[in-house]
Amino acid sequence: MKGRFLSLLVPPAAWLVIFLVIPTAVLAADAFSADGLRALTDPLTWHLFARSFRIALVSTALCLAVSYPVAYFIAGCGPRWRALLLFLVVLPFWTNLLVRTYALKFCLDPLGWSNCESAVVFALVQSFLPFMILPLYSSIEKLPKRLLEASQDLGASPARTFWSVTVPLTLPGIAAGCILVFIPILGIFALPEFISERTPMVGSQINLYFMKGSNRGAGSALTLILMVLTMTLTGLYSRYKKSEGLV
Amino acid sequence: MRKLLGAFTALVLATLYAPIAVMTVFSFNDSKYSIRWTGFTLDWYRKLAADTVLHDELWNTLRLAAATTVLATVLGTIAALAARNAFRGKALYATLVALPVMVPDIVLAISMRSFFRWLDVPLSLLTAIIAHTTFNLSYVAIVVSARLQGLDRSIELAGQDLGASPVRAFWKVTLPAILPGVASGAVLAFTLSFDDFVITYFTVRPGSGTLPMRIYSMVRFGVTPEMTALSTVILLASLALIVTALKISRVPVAGGGR
């Protein structure tokens, strides 16, 4: 029994050590080179991280604002409409992100809305909507109807019920959606360049360091910072999940 | 209120689908400057069909996705099965399995690139397959784990009590029970690999490009009719793929359809 278990554990564990742990160590070694350490004091580095943070934050907030009403509506539909609407929300996720971004660019360019941060944010919100709508939907769907009725019976206005009952109870879905949207946007590459070349984010600079400028140390430093930031965020998120008893 | 929410949902869905629809229509437009409709043509599609470099790129994309799907499905399923047991260091193991899903693509891509350079392994389609397998293994493991959680372990033990060897119990009981999860994992891995740009871009030899890489290099020249036609083909191919997969394996696309 023990032997069989070991034979199960070894292949994936070995793969992950060789192709995930060691590469991360190599990345860290490159990041702590002279070039890498110099990148830490380069104002450009922090300027780019500030922009990426701002774009990711604004996009996540807008994504949440747009997705909540949609998820709320879908959760209130009958089973057939629910299935259809969820299918329509998820379908674009199964198609190529660059192709979808190109389609968007195709429509935005003639309107004169490109080469600016707001167009990038719009494209990001549009692309990441499914990742926000799905977790929101599954937590709104689980809402106990009795609590909402109780709140109204006790005289709370619909708005008050929404803010003091619905939102707090769907906080796990809100947190999951935000983490699923914020993290990929923070490290996004290619999509922003399609829409605007004037607003580079961290991902585009990493590309420049590796593919054009051949400054491997600086590129590795930026990548490592990105990794530490996103792992801190997911770490905080899983602590929150544990405190809510969700794991 | 409900009507208002419905109208808003319709509007959001329209923003998701309108650009795709507009692009598809204009890929048949006769004008080189695709903004105004001047007449129907299949010229751009003829040009694509005659582009032999594009054929090589399609072949590369398919080989990459197929090899990744096989490797990631096998390793991911095994990883999910192993995680059912309690053992020392399980938390670390679970973190490792989930890591590729948690960090942005570019982090994984750059570490892989650095790793191959450190080993002096030249980049090729094979290095891209290894990188793709690493991130897709996690997705498969997550999907299969979800399926395993719903599986009653006593059925497997019953199989063994009735004299089946552990191996036979696995093939006859466990595998059939988790097969829908394994199939969803495989479809997910194929799609993610087929569509991936970031990881391929940093881990493949520049000569052996894939379709998403072609899109990236073409967009630098702005909006062109060839690009519009190619995007339409890729989009429709993905949609056909997922709809077929749905029909064959009844993969739950969204978790809500139960």
Topology (SSEs and partners):
The complex is a heterodimer of chains A (247) and B (258).
Chain A: H1 2-31, H2 34-40, H3 43-75, H4 79-90, H5 97-111, H6 117-141, H7 145-153, H8 158-169, H9 171-186, H10 191-195, H11 202-212, H12 216-243
Helix pairs in contact in A: 1-12, 2-12, 3-6, 3-9, 6-9, 7-8, 9-12, 11-12
Chain B: H1 2-26, H2 43-50, H3 52-82, H4 90-102, H5 105-118, H6 125-149, H7 153-161, H8 166-195, H9 198-203, H10 211-219, H11 225-249
Describe this structure in words.
- The complex is a heterodimer of chains A (247) and B (258).
- By secondary structure, chain A is mostly helical.
- Chain A has a single domain (27-243), classed as MetI-like (MetI-like fold, Orthogonal Bundle), CATH 1.10.3720.10.
- Chain A is built from twelve helices and no strands.
- The radius of gyration of chain A is 22 Å and the shape is globular.
- Chain A starts with a helix and ends with a helix.
- Chain B has 258 residues and is an all-alpha fold.
- Chain B has one domain (41-252): MetI-like fold, CATH 1.10.3720.
- Chain B has helices spanning 2-26, 43-50, 52-82, 90-102, 105-118, 125-149, 153-161, 166-195, 198-203, 211-219, 225-249.
- Chain B starts with a helix and ends in a 9-residue tail after the last helix.
- At the A-B interface, helix 1, helix 3, helix 4, helix 5 and helix 6 of A face helix 1, helix 3, helix 4, helix 5 and helix 6 of B.
Provide a short characterization of the protein structure.
The complex is a heterodimer of chains A (247) and B (258). Chain A has 247 residues and is mainly α.
